[in-house]
Amino acid sequence: MLHRRLIWWSKAIYKLTLFMLTCPNQVLTNSEDLESWYQSFLPATTTSSNETPHIIYSYRNVATGFAARLSPEDVKAMEKKDGFLAARPQELLSLHTTHTPNFLGLHQNLGFWDSSNYGKGVIIGVLDTGIHPSHPSFNDEGMPPPPAKWKGKCELNGTFTCNNKLIGVRNFLSGSTEIAFDDDGHGTHTSGTAAGNFVKGANVFGNANGTAVGIAPLAHLAIYKVCEVRCGGSDILAAMDAVIEDGVDVLSLSLGGLSRPFYDDNTAVGAFNAMQRGIFVSCSAGNRGPLSSSLSNEAPWILTVGANTIDRSIRATAILGNKEEFNSESLFQPKDFTSTLLPLIYSGMKGSQCIAGSLNNSDVQGKIVLCEVGGGVSNIAKGRTVKNAGGAAMILMNLDSSGYSTSAEAHVLPATRVSYADGLKIKSYINSTARPMATILFKGTIIGANNAPMVSSFSSRGPSRASPGILKPDIIGPGVNILAAWPFSVENNTDTNLTFNIISGTSMSCPHLSGIAALLKSAHPDWSPAAIKSAIMTTADQLNLDNKPIVDQRLTQADFFATGAGHVNPSRANDPGLVYDIDPDNYIPYLCGLNYTNQQIGIITQQRVNCSTESKITEAQLNYPSFAITLGSTNQTNTMTVTNVGDATSSFAVEIVLPLGVDVSVEP
Ligand SMILES: *[C@@H]1O[C@H](CO)[C@@H](O)[C@H](O)[C@H]1NC(C)=O
Ligand SMILES: *[C@@H]1O[C@H](CO)[C@@H](O)[C@H](O)[C@H]1NC(C)=O
Ligand SMILES: *[C@@H]1O[C@H](CO)[C@@H](O)[C@H](O)[C@H]1NC(C)=O
Ligand SMILES: *[C@@H]1O[C@H](CO)[C@@H](O)[C@H](O)[C@H]1NC(C)=O
Ligand SMILES: *[C@@H]1O[C@H](CO)[C@@H](O)[C@H](O)[C@H]1NC(C)=O
Ligand SMILES: *[C@@H]1O[C@H](CO)[C@@H](O)[C@H](O)[C@H]1NC(C)=O
Ligand SMILES: *[C@@H]1O[C@H](CO)[C@@H](O)[C@H](O)[C@H]1NC(C)=O
Ligand SMILES: *[C@@H]1O[C@H](CO)[C@@H](O)[C@H](O)[C@H]1NC(C)=O
Ligand SMILES: *[C@@H]1O[C@H](CO)[C@@H](O)[C@H](O)[C@H]1NC(C)=O
After folding, report:
1. Which of 54, 82, 125, 651 could form a disulfide with 248 if both were Cys (CB 3.0 to 4.6 A apart)?
2. Distances (CA, A) of 28 to 31, 60, 284, 533, 601
3. 3-class SS at 224?
4. Whether 507 is catalytic
5. Model pTM?
6. Of 550, 577, 604, which one is at a domain's C-terminal end?
7. How many domains does the chain have?
8. Among residues 186, 220, 512, 524, which one is catalytic?
9. Is position 128 annotated as part of the catalytic site?
10. pLDDT in tens, 328-361
11. What is the domain extent for residue 64?
């Protein structure tokens, strides 16, 4: 994989800074006027180099402001100019796959799209690492032409072309003149998950064989490349600026950074302006779970998506000399691995993490090595270490924090990854006998894990730091062992046009929800982004396939800060009956209630706001499908309003389940 570095990143003396300016007195509709007004803020030369400063992005839709590469001194000088509002340095966000990027998994097929529209007529914009344009997941068989409102661009060159599936491709990596080709895989995978076309015989190492298809197979895809290893805040904002003009309906972002106030969060600022134009924004919740308050993308105008398991595994069972068996997973399923028991070794404290070099003084030749996950080293790399030291196979055990949360990975040797509890049993077996023995049995793709959906250990948890009164994440969706399109062969890294990969992360659950939003948008073109979100949230499942409450990685009942409203149920979301709708203007009293200054709110809303003349509301008073309050000694009252989106003559029966200390009344 070629991981080029961004130009601004390699020039250390420069700082890419975003400027937010107050609107000029007369409205500058002409983009040249806007550009020259922005230009007037730039110094003639920067103090740190003799290069003439220039504007990298002039924003029009998501911000009144621009991005430029300047020194801190330049910024100081600019602060004195009339119209200056705020400046901030480039923010770098991460892609939301799990820490070990070669996770492997399976495609979920729970009849997600039983509505007949398949997302027809809807355009999904994906901000990611680009696309492998010739992958069959992006063929346009059966696709109608894009709707007339589409104004986007296809910036591919001679080798590749756009089609009725892939209607737009643009590169927003600052400084790059190359096409938005995906040399990472992440963007191809997320795009395929959201709206890939049907491809038969998709598999990885022969596993999870079947028809690969995105959630909204008739939706169109518009690709905006903003990431390469990391994603720059100014690039994201520039892509969102374009998205608004291009005519995208649903925006999917499988990336994010740490929590920050909304006015200081480019994704939140861009998403607010997208939402105001009716664009639905779906984002990954982050992979920093199970730590609490570890969320990204927390704004109430964004759908924040956590990740859960699906009911398939690619089984690799560890068998011990005492006949104990531990089921787990591996994507690499060697056909010829011996079922004869081999010596089993645990290298103890020093070698337990199987980091390169740590096995040098252990005799692992021909043995099965027990290793622990973690230590900042990917599980694949641990396998390579064991293999290089002459080990025959590897059993990986989870840390206490990851509990029972595992996933199938493309190991380089026979391997399996067991839960923390099973790992402890294996350790005590090793302790209990002079000659511990084990083997691994590879059983292939198995369907029927009834504890699915289970919240993954990595899925970021609430409460929200930026706005604790809004319960986040909003929803969970499939994000473990997800099979989708990939630009090159996982087996030998060769470029091919028919390759898939199985990976895990909230990056994978987010595009599932983006696809579902596209299905809903297609079926209900008049629903607002808030109405679509409400429909998704109020119809979610709280029970797993066993009809028991959804569990987390400890196999104990998951709390609302892990599940949000629960596991998405698309068919039910299509008919929610009632929705909690929010008009974009309703967010202003909410933002005033967060005690942001007028200027800070202006950065988000692009309009002058005066909180002393606005009504303020508490977070819980936003007409959101969920809210969080702290019960105290004084009474608090929240009024929510629902809107009927079903038959005009519907009648509803009220059933109230009361948490302790809360009263609910319903009128009429
Ligand atoms: C198209 O772009 C790719 C990737 O940037 C490059 O390798 C290729 O040479 C270009 N082809 C043409 C015909 O410009
Ligand atoms: C995948 O399934 C298809 C259709 O059933 C079959 O033709 C093909 O051989 C299978 N491929 C693998 C690798 O199992
Ligand atoms: C382990 O052995 C390898 C190969 O012999 C060597 O390159 C490496 O430096 C050794 N590492 C340590 C920590 O001893
Ligand atoms: C294994 O035995 C050693 C020595 O008896 C003991 O210190 C250690 O805690 C035991 N480990 C496990 C996992 O039982
Ligand atoms: C690489 O993998 C592809 C797809 O699995 C296969 O067709 C090709 O023969 C492999 N090439 C090598 C050199 O192993
Ligand atoms: C993939 O498809 C493109 C466009 O159809 C073609 O130019 C290229 O040669 C194909 N690559 C492989 C490895 O088959
Ligand atoms: C905003 O300030 C008011 C008054 O000081 C306070 O009651 C309220 O809790 C603050 N809101 C938040 C979200 O901090
Ligand atoms: C905001 O409104 C208050 C009350 O009407 C007024 O005193 C204040 O000057 C206004 N602030 C701005 C910046 O317009
Ligand atoms: C809160 O409301 C309840 C029910 O209306 C009432 O009985 C109680 O006195 C109120 N408490 C306070 C502190 O106002």
Report:
1. 125
2. 7, 10, 35, 34, 21
3. strand
4. yes
5. 0.89
6. 577
7. 4
8. 186
9. yes
10. 999 989 988 988 999 999 977 666 889 888 888 7
11. 2-86
